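Typical record was shown:
=====
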Amino acid sequence: MADEELIRLARRHRVGTGYTDWRGRETPVKEDTIVAVLAALGVDASTPAAVRAELDRLDERDRTRLVPPVVVHRVSPTASGEIAIPALTGAATEITVELAEGGVVEPSGRKGADGSTRYRLPDNTPLGWHRLRVRQGPLVRTAALLVAPARLEATPRVWGLMTQLYSVRSLGSWGMGDLRDLADLASWGGRDLGAGFVLVNPLHAAEPAPPVNPSPYSPMSRRFAGPLYLRVEDVPEYADLDQADRDRIAALSLPLRESVHTLDEIDRDAIWEAKRAALEILYRRPRSGERQESYERFRRREGPALDGFATWCALAEEHGADWRRWPAALQDPQSPAVAADRERLAGRVGFHSWLQWQLDGQLAEAQAAARRSGMPIGIVHDLAVGVGQGSADAWMHRPLFAPGMSVGAPPDEFNQRGQDWGQPPWHPERLAEAEYGPYRSMLAAALRHGGGLRLDHAMQISRLWWVPEGGSPADGTYVGYDRDAMLSCLVWEATRAGAVVVGEDLGTVEPDVRRDLAARDVLGTSLLWFENDDRGRPRRPARWREPSLATVGTHDMPPTTGFLHGDHVALREELGLLTRPAADEMADHRRRVADWLDLLADEGLLATAPDEIVRALAEGVTDHDEEVVAALHAFLARTPARLLGIALTDVVGERRTQNQPGTTDEYPNWRVPLADADDRPVLLDDLPAATFPALDPVSPRPAGR
């Protein structure tokens, strides 16, 4: 057990000294973990004297700190928040706000019961980012001021498709789903099915040269998109190619196009090698004056961030995708050596900038196609929790990441050994001191060409599980962030984009996080298999949350048919991921499924008796799979949830899981192409002519009917 002063110090830095685990048990955090995490925050807690010195430093800081680096002021049509300035000197307080568009306003103040002065901005103060200036006697401080909406616009009640885009192949794609496939999927979903959105996996940038990490949740940048998803033939300059270049591109694409007729694992390395060669041909084509002007506008809009990312890509092609293994002179993006190499590699830097321009255009067209099809929301993009340790983002913003730490999750029901995702966490104080600049630009980029954003692991706006390098995930602890500031940044960017936001608030989540998300009209996630009442029984539909995305499963679990048959238990046993006997796990699983089948029957959603279905599942019989899948989605439709999500895997009858948490190469994570219940490849071209029982309960216009 940590001593009292160390606990005080940890709490002042929002470092957890204990937590409630997934079984509801209070679990203390090891003292070594607390000391290591504090060290990553730049705090020496190695001795009692060092702890006392840091506590004294914090006391002194608080005696002169009129405002934090970022001040949030929330407003709504009916109410407005206040800015509290503490009385530190006894002198009168002067406060002014310099508006982003020019001009100055002076808030009106009143004394608070605690001696502070509380200020209210004029009602006509524009939303957005401004500068706050405070003087109190000899103290003068400035801070960024975010005037943010109190909440988002209410999300419409609609249903939509959820998919891992790379798995959705077509006759025109190069071995994996791409942005043209996304546009076509959205067009079909909106026009023929009446879907309101398509939720896709993160489309973040991966490594610029093989080997390419298959996980969309461990990218090289969350700010920029992945060129792997480009449709080569949709680059405008393709129309001007001569026959020789067209033949070269056709030869590059042929084996990849043929692969879509098989269930071979998706080979990102081969796909990117071919696409990169084809895109280099297109990059060398002359651009019209209008096209060149458009490109220059894009580069000006993206500014230094694009230049830094493209420079990292060019250097990574030479030195590998982990900047920590580069020559020391190149590990600082501001170094003279990097500037010299940027000039030397100007052609490659230009190529990677051009790729992002192409992505910007194709992402825009996917969202436009979704809206043209009648979707009120369109594409909902997914934001990963973080980036790889050696990634572009970690290189460009190195001081803003905590060294020697990675983000993960404590042990829970489905990952009983915990998880270490190998991603460096934001340093909370330094990110705030940077006025959340990289975080804000990342959100803006993610929302630019979409109608919504899903936060993978919604706790990223409140706290993250930090794992000291070399330690077990079970030996980590939570580190907190300024939730109000990060959530307000998110709400402001989503308001600007007119987008909905969904937070994946599954697992071990602080109750007040869910309350804060709901208060700002950020939806939570209601996963059917986890929706239990206070007695641990399946929750009846009327008692589900309204502000949520309701789904049967998630990409970290098998599709519904696979889950029904307990495929995840067998797989985790095979991979050594269980912490108790497989027979016990399977028995619990079957009880859970039986409870849900009883509720479905009670709701009048099953024609077959639950006991008969349970026996069939135990024997591996699949005769009732379609009936149960349809009943589960009919159940979702009875909940009050704002959004209903149906996985494309459930639509086509796929049984294999896309990802087994806790593994890397032990299972072909993120490499499984879409197939049907008979293990036949399913192409996007096949969908309009088919019928799908899973869609009948929610779609007003089922395909093929």
User: Anything to note?
Assistant: The radius of gyration is 26 Å. The mean pLDDT is 94. The chain is about 35% helix and 15% strand. The CA atoms of residues 145 and 507 lie 33 Å apart.
